[in-house]
């Protein structure tokens, strides 16, 4: 953030400590943090930013893009600009990225919301949540503020980071040719996506050219693709390639799903939508699991496996909170299909 006004320091202690800059700014790659938020998310996103800065970005000064379907107010901009050590950008989402496409029957969508409210399906009655999921699935990477970047790191309000991040995840992605990454995975609520897999199958048979040969079908399906096992990467944390999301393969995939209407007639989440895309359009080895990035978003924790890793990175998470090897996590499956060993020490933490 830039501050041009002179600051009155007469009341401050003479020793103003600034952390040493470990990575010269010239070492950054072309990447940004990105947050979708409402003005009233300010204090929850402030907590998230403070932790991202303390554990990582104070040494790098990556930019941060904030997106909103309403204009950001001055408080939101002032607080976030003061916290982010890189440049901040604030974008308004164009109306046609956050509204009903013409092929959607809005009465039918309304009836679905009423029905899901009665069935107590999480966010089932929410119209804005559906616009949010559709936006994160198909549009954030095409916002004009995002177009100049190659990689993104999604940050939500109220998250926690429990360990130092002693390397640059953006650089890791670029140098190792990774396109998508995760720290937590789990099973989706079936009621929110009853026809998602049908829609995916329709897309896949019409677009075989977009399906990667060495894909992660084994992560998504237990019967060779006939049915979806509901495993998905939790998309409230993502470091990924914007160029992949802007590729013909991903855009054709999103466009095809969007035409089927499940963002409104069901309650498709961006997590299964991104995950299925990563699982089928990418080669297995293009998806990465960041054991070292310790993360919490209510109600799950990823605390790195391996005591030495946790000590080296000054972690403050309780290893017994780690979700990775518990029954409702899909992360073991990721290790199996990729034929890679689980991080050292996982047996002790099962
Ligand atoms: P959950 O994590 O699935 O419980 O959903 P969240 O409430 O955290 O929403 C996901 C992300 O979208 C967060 O970054 C929110 O700040 C953001 N978000 C959710 N709804 C809206 C909305 O109506 N407008 C805007 N601008 N952001 C939203
Ligand atoms: Mn959230």
TrEMBL record:
<dbReference type="GO" id="GO:0005794">
    <property type="term" value="C:Golgi apparatus"/>
</dbReference>
<keyword id="KW-0808">Transferase</keyword>
<dbReference type="InterPro" id="IPR002685">
    <property type="entry name" value="Glyco_trans_15"/>
</dbReference>
<feature type="region of interest" description="Disordered">
    <location>
        <begin position="1"/>
        <end position="23"/>
    </location>
</feature>
<dbReference type="Pfam" id="PF01793">
    <property type="entry name" value="Glyco_transf_15"/>
</dbReference>
<dbReference type="GO" id="GO:0016020">
    <property type="term" value="C:membrane"/>
</dbReference>
<dbReference type="InterPro" id="IPR029044">
    <property type="entry name" value="Nucleotide-diphossugar_trans"/>
</dbReference>
<dbReference type="GO" id="GO:0006487">
    <property type="term" value="P:protein N-linked glycosylation"/>
</dbReference>
<keyword id="KW-0328">Glycosyltransferase</keyword>
<dbReference type="GO" id="GO:0006493">
    <property type="term" value="P:protein O-linked glycosylation"/>
</dbReference>
<dbReference type="GO" id="GO:0000032">
    <property type="term" value="P:cell wall mannoprotein biosynthetic process"/>
</dbReference>
<protein>
    <submittedName>
        <fullName>Alpha-1,2-mannosyltransferase</fullName>
    </submittedName>
</protein>
<comment type="similarity">
    <text>Belongs to the glycosyltransferase 15 family.</text>
</comment>
<feature type="active site" description="Nucleophile">
    <location>
        <position position="238"/>
    </location>
</feature>
<dbReference type="GO" id="GO:0000026">
    <property type="term" value="F:alpha-1,2-mannosyltransferase activity"/>
</dbReference>
